[in-house]
């Protein structure tokens, strides 16, 4: 349907008409939405070319389409597109571009470069909507993942304050923040604070998502790590095993998330002097 509409627009209005660009945009976004980025790229590239001719290289519509093209492009092709979009006057476009650049650089192990991008995104977000807007926590979380632990903790604490104020204290997004905060506090040796954060996150996820939700399982694993660090071995093991059980039921035994749980539990068993149990667990998982 979308391909036919594009063909009709080309025939009726020509290859350089904004109405043709709209049809190309619709096709590209549809293909991206169904998980076919390779097929989406030519259509979105066509929309960008028409935009540039009709509106100019720096126009709002042009840069909006540049971001959509970047989103379906491989990293080497997407990075210059995202950089281009950071110049947009529209804060939504610019923030999205800075966040995407940060993610690319984080994935490539360029933590300092990623942090610089996330700080740019944070500045634009604060300028556009204020320092306590609902979008602030997500930017702070991303930044916290690429800076040193001592710098990450206050970022996540701020994210949690804003998240509670804008979403309410028991919103699932706050559980994500508290789980991340717990990991940083644990890395800093603040196990009591880490335990409180992980326990709060687990309570929120159990209340809002349910005890059998995979995200609840991830928080259980985070809590288990803190309990293990505090030498609460029985409680830690219970959490690790419950997380594994939840993911087995949710994903199946062969899913990567479940296999990660198996490796995590096996490591725990070895760390606590039970190598034979660990080997038996891994053997059973491999045979499934």
From TrEMBL:
InterPro entries: TPR-like_helical_dom_sf, TPR_rpt. Gene3D superfamilies: Tetratricopeptide repeat domain. Pfam families: TPR_10, TPR_12. Keywords: Repeat, TPR repeat. SMART domains: TPR. The keyword Repeat applies. This is Tetratricopeptide TPR_2 repeat protein. The lineage of its organism: Bacteria, Pseudomonadati, Acidobacteriota, Terriglobia, Bryobacterales.
